[in-house]
Write a structure and sequence with these properties.
mainly beta, Immunoglobulin-like, 4-stranded mixed sheet, 4-stranded antiparallel sheet, 1 helix, 3% helix, EC 3.5.2.17, purine metabolism, Thyroxine_BS, hydroxyisourate hydrolase activity, Transthyretin/HIU_hydrolase_sf
Length: 116
């Protein structure tokens, strides 16, 4: 995906494959206020069908991406889930750039980075 905007994907590092069906919620953070921008799910490729924020609509500021991973991992372990919601708070400094924020996740840990 090229141009400015915001996208994500979720990779299941325990199974070595994309994580399909994970609920994703995006909010804009302004001080103590959080504004819901979108709710969606990951597809079979672990990505959302549409960008979270389309090209030309990205604004500078702080955002929160929340991935509800507990139901996805419910069948992988018999123990209660360690991770439930994984929330990533990040700042967009350049509204003209593309921000890709992936989640690499297992039932017990996660990591992220700013991708391209």
């Amino acid at each position: 995906m090229s141009g400015a905007g915001l996208s994500t994907h979720v990779l299941d590092t325990a199974r070595g494959r994309p994580a399909a069906g994970v609920p994703v919620t995006l909010r804009r953070v302004d001080g103590e206020a959080r504004t819901l921008l979108t709710r969606t799910f990951t597809n079979a490729d672990g990505r959302t069908d549409e960008p979270l924020i389309a090209r030309g609509e990205l604004r500078t500021g702080t955002y929160e991406l929340t991935f509800t991973v507990a139901p996805y991992f419910a069948d992988l372990t018999s123990a209660d889930p360690f991770l439930d919601d994984v929330t990533l708070r990040f700042t967009v400094a350049d509204a003209g750039a593309h921000y890709h924020v992936p989640l690499l996740v297992s039932p017990w840990s996660y990591s992220t980075y700013r991708g391209s």
